[in-house]
Amino acid sequence: MSVYTHVTRTQLDDFFSHYHLGAVISYTGIKEGMVNSNYFVTTTQGEFVLTLFEDMTDIDVDPVVKLLRHLADNQLCVPCPQHDRHGQPLKRLNHKTALLCQRLVGTALITPTLEHCTQIGLQLAKLHTCTQGYLFPTQNPNNLTSLKRLFDSLVPQLSNEDKNLVDNELAFQNQHNIAMPMGLIHADLFRDNVLFESGQFSGMLDFYSACHGELLFDVAIAVNDWCCDDGVINPEKIAALLSAYQCKRPLEVVEQQRWSVMLRRAALRFWLARLAHQNRARTGELVQQKDPLAFRRILVQHQA
Ligand SMILES: Nc1ncnc2c1ncn2[C@@H]1O[C@H](COP(=O)(O)OP(=O)(O)OP(=O)(O)O)[C@@H](O)[C@H]1O
Ligand SMILES: N[C@@H](CCO)C(=O)O
Fold first, then answer.
1. 224 in any annotated domain
2. ipTM attached to this prediction
3. Whole-model pTM?
C-alpha cells in the first residue's frame, strides 16, 4: 500500500464509534503497496488494518469480503473483515469505500529462502483447492487482448527495442493461447502480500486483484516474485515452490506444457502494469513505485 488519502484522528474516532471494536489508541499509515491507502490502527480491543479503496467501489469490494469469509472458513490465514454495529462490512470514509480487517501477525519477507518458497507453493495450492467450484464474479482482466491494449497505450514511451520485444512476446503468447484449468486466483501473490512469523507462513493479504482465471497464471505470478534473487531466476526455488504446490494440486499435462509460456505472460503483465502505474502516479503522503524493468529482465530470462 501507499497512503494517498489522509485520515484525521477525529475522523478515525468517529469511524470506530460505529463498531464494537474499542476506542482508537493510535494509528499509522502503511507505506507498502501501491494501490490503496492503508493504516494500522490499535484500539483498546485489538489491532486492525483500515483500507481506503482508491479506485474500487462497494460493488467491487463486496465479492472480496465474501471471498475472505469463505477462505477463513476453510482455515486459510487471511484477514477477517470486521462488521459495524449494523453488521455491515463496508463503510464510507473520506469519500472512499472503507474496510476494516483484523491485523494478522508477521512481516513480509525481503529475501525468501527455499523453505519459504515451499510454504508459498503449499498455501497457493490450498487457495486453489479450497475454492474449486467457488463462483467469483470477476474474470481475469489481464487476458491477451487487454495486455495488447495496455501495450498500445504505452507504445509512445517505449524504445524500438522494447516495442519489438513486446510485439514478439504478444505474438508468441497468441500462438500458445489454449484452454487451461481455471478457478479463483489471487493474481498478485508477491512477497509484500504474504506474512511470515518465526519462519512460518502467517497470512495471505490483498485479495483485491482476485479473479476467475488460469490457475497456472497464479503460480507463475508467485514464482516470478518469490523465486528470483535480485532479479535473477533461481531454479532451485522454482522447483521447491512447484513441488510443494503439486503435493496438493498436481499440474495437468496441458499446464506442464505451457509452464514457460505462463512465466513469460506473468512477467509481461507486470512489466506493462508497472509502466502504466508510473504514468498514473498519484500524489500522497507515502507513495511506493516499483521498478518496471525488473520484469523486463525476468521476461528476457524466461525467453532465453
Ligand atoms: N490484515 C493485515 N495484517 C497485517 N498487515 C497487513 C494487513 N493488511 C495489510 N497489511 C500490510 O499492509 C501492506 C500493504 O497491504 P496491501 O498489499 O493490501 O496494499 P495494496 O495497496 O492493495 O497493495 P498492492 O500494491 O500489493 O496491491 C502489506 O504489505 C502488509 O504489510
Ligand atoms: N504486486 C504488484 C503491484 C500490485 O498489483 C507489483 O509488484 O507490481
1. yes
2. 0.92
3. 0.93
